[in-house]
Amino acid sequence: MTDRYDWGASGGSEPAHHALRELVMAATVRIHRTGVGYAPEESGAFLGSGFFIAPNWVLTCAHVIHGGEGGEVTVIYQPGPYDEPRAVPGKVAATLPEHVDRPGQGSWPAPDLALVRLREPVEHECVYVSERPMPHYTEGRVFYAGWAPFQGQPQPHDGSLTVHGTIGGWSTGAQLRLGENDLPLGVSGGPVIDPARGEVVGVLKSRADHGSGGTSIGIERLRTLPVAPGDRPHDLYRHGLRHHDPYQHDLYQAVFHAHDRYHRDRQQPTDSGRPTWTDLQAELGTRPGRTLSPDERVDLLGRLADLPPPESTRGLLDILHSLPGFRLPTLSPAPRGWRDGLGALYENARQDGTLRLVAEYAMRVMTAERPVTPFVLDAEQALWEWIKQAATRLDSDTRSDLARRRAQHVGDRRRERPGRDRAEHRTGGAPPEQARAHPPGTSRDEAVPLSLSVLLDVEHLAWNRGHCDWSIAVVGPEGEATPLSDGQGAPLDDLAGRVAESLVEAFRRCDEPGRPVPLHAALPHLLLDLPVDEWRLRSGAEPLGAERPVVVRCKDRDQLPAEDGGYDGSGGYGGYGSYDGSGGYGGELPGDEEESDRRERWQWVHDRHDRPDTRARAEILDCDDAVRRPVSDVAVLRGLAHGTVPVLCRQGDQRYPDDATALGRIVRAGYGVVLWRRWNRQTDSVCGEFHRGARMTVYDAVGAGALPELVYGLRKQVREGLTEAFWAKDIALLYDDPHRPLPGAGDLLEAP
Q1: What is the torsion angle, in degrees rounded to the nearest 10, for the CA atoms of residue 534, residue 539, residue 540 and residue 546?
Q2: pTM to 2 decimals?
Q3: What are the backbone dihedrals phi and psi of residue 406, each rounded to the nearest 5 degrees, phi first?
Q4: Tens digit of pLDDT for each residue in 246-258?
C-alpha cells in the first residue's frame, strides 16, 4: 500500500514479510461475550476481531463489541503459534460514534471504532500504527488479519486485498474499498497493514454484500475521540497528578503515548532475540519521510511521548504553520498529537528538506510552553540529544542556530526553577536547613498525627527450613504494642491461612469507615519479598494490598549482609531466599555513624521541599535500559544522594549469586524507603512503563510519607482495571521509620 511519497520497498524480503505476519497475528485478538467460561475453543459467543494497539488496549469496530453485555467483553489472544490461547476480561472505554440508535445489521455508521481497556495486565505484542495522515489511495495492496469461525471453532485468518478506491471522499467518514479476496464473517475489527512499510493503517469494517472484499476505516479517525470532562492535560500536571498520566481524560493521547513508548522501549536489548516491528521495518527498506531510519523514527516518537501532549490541536497547528518553508495542507481530521505532526511532515515536505523540518519541529516541541517538572526537564533534555545527533547531518549554520536556541531555553528554565542544579547534585551531608525532626506522635507529612497500625511479625526458623513463628499486635500512635495472637511452626506457604482469622480481628478492632488501618509486616531481610499484600483473608475477598495500605519493615538488622555484600548461599527458605543458619553474615550491629546516616536519609526523602525539583528521586538499581544488572554493594549504595529512593525493577529475577541479599544490602546502606516489583515476567518484557511510573510515584509523593497511601491507591487501581496503573502490578514498598523502632526489639510479641 504505497504511493510516490512512501519510498517503501517494492517487493521486500520474503523472510521479513513472514516475520511481519507473525507479529501481526500475535497482536490480533478475538472478542467474545462474557460468561463463556473463558474457554478459548468456544465459538458460540464469538463477536469478532481486534488487535492490541498499545499495552492492554485493544482496537476493534464498534459494531463488534455492540454484541457484548453492558460494555463488558472477553478478549482472547494467542502470543505465538505454539502458545495456548489466553482470555482476559475487557471493558469498552470509547466508541466512535459515541451513540447509535439501534443500528441494523451491517449499518453501523463510520468510523465504527471502539477501544477496549483490559481489566488486568497481560504480556502481549502491540502493532505499529502509522503516524501519517491516511492518503486517499486509488491503488495498492494491503495485508489484513483477523479471526473467523471454521469448522465450529474460531481460527486465525489473513490475506491480501487490493485497494479499489474510497467511499466518502474527503469526509471524516471516508473508507477504503478493498477487493479481490473473500472476507469471512468475523474478521471485522482486524488490522489492515501496509506491507511495504510494515505499519497498521486501518481497521477492517465490513465485508462486501455482493462479491469479494469489503471496506476499512483509516486509523487516523481515532483523532476524533472526544476528551472526557475534566482538567486539561497541563492542568493535571499543575495540580499534582495522582494517576501517573498527564492525559487521563484524553484517551487518544493516553493510548498513543503508551504505543510510542512501548515501541521505543522494545528496541532496548532483551534476552529473547525476537525481531521487533522496527527491526522488520528496517529489513523492508522503509525510510520514514525519506530521511529517518525506522530506528531513528521510533526513538524520536518515544521521546516525544515522554513530554506532555499538546495543550490543544490549535497549538499544534500553530507550530506546524510556523515551520519555515513548509505549507501544511488542510487535513481532516486535524493532527492531534506530537506523532501526528511528525507524520504531516513526512507527507508534505519537499524531498530535500525533510530532515531540517523534522529537527526544527522537534525543537519547537521541546521549547513549547508547558508546566515544568523534573520529568519535563528530563524529557526535554532527551529530545535535545536526539535533535543534536540528527543535526550532525545538517550544515554548521543550522547546528549553531539550534545550539543557541537550546542555550536560551535552558536559561529560561533555570530562571523558572532556580537552584535546581545545586539540589540535584547533593550527595551527602546534613539534610536541608528547613528540615526538622517531627515531634513524637506525628508524621513528617505536615505533622499529621500518626494513627493505629496492625503489626504482623514473622520470625524465621533456621532449624526448620520453610517454617516460621508469627505474632500479631495493634500498635498505637506512640509505638506501644498490644499483642493479640501468635503461632509457632507455621509453613511459609500456608502462613496467610494461619494468620487470616487473627488479622481479620485486628482490622475489625482498628478500622474506621473509609479509613482502613495500615498493615506493617515485620520480616527478616531474606523474606522482605514475601507477598503479604497479595494475601486474601477469606474467600472472594480483595487482596490485602487493595483493601488497605500494606508496607514491609526489616526486623533483623543484626543479620544484614556485610559491607562487601558477602554471603555464602547455603541453606534456604524454600524459595523465598537463602540463609546459612549461623545467625548473621559477619556484619555487626549498625554503629552510631551508620544510624545517623540512616536517619538523615529518612529525613531528606520525607521533607516537603519548597521546589518540586528538589524532591526525592527514584533510582532504578537493577535494570539499565531493560538489561538486567546486579545491585551494587553496600559501599556504592551509600554513595547515592540522600534524596534517593531505591527502586528494583526485577526483584526475583535472580541471575547473580548475591541477588538473594539485594534488598538486605539496600537496607544496610541506610535506606528506609524502597520500591520494587516482584518479577514473574518474560525475559523480553518491556520495563519502560515501570521505570516511568515508579519515578512519577516518588515525585508525586512530595514527601515519602505519602508513599504508603499512593501505593495502596495504585494497587486498588490495578484491581479496578485502570490501564494506566497496570505498570504497578506486583508492586511492593519497604517503609521502615528509624524513629519508630519495632516493638520488642526484634523479639516476637506474645499474646496474653
Answers
A1: -30
A2: 0.82
A3: -60, -45
A4: 455 789 999 999 9
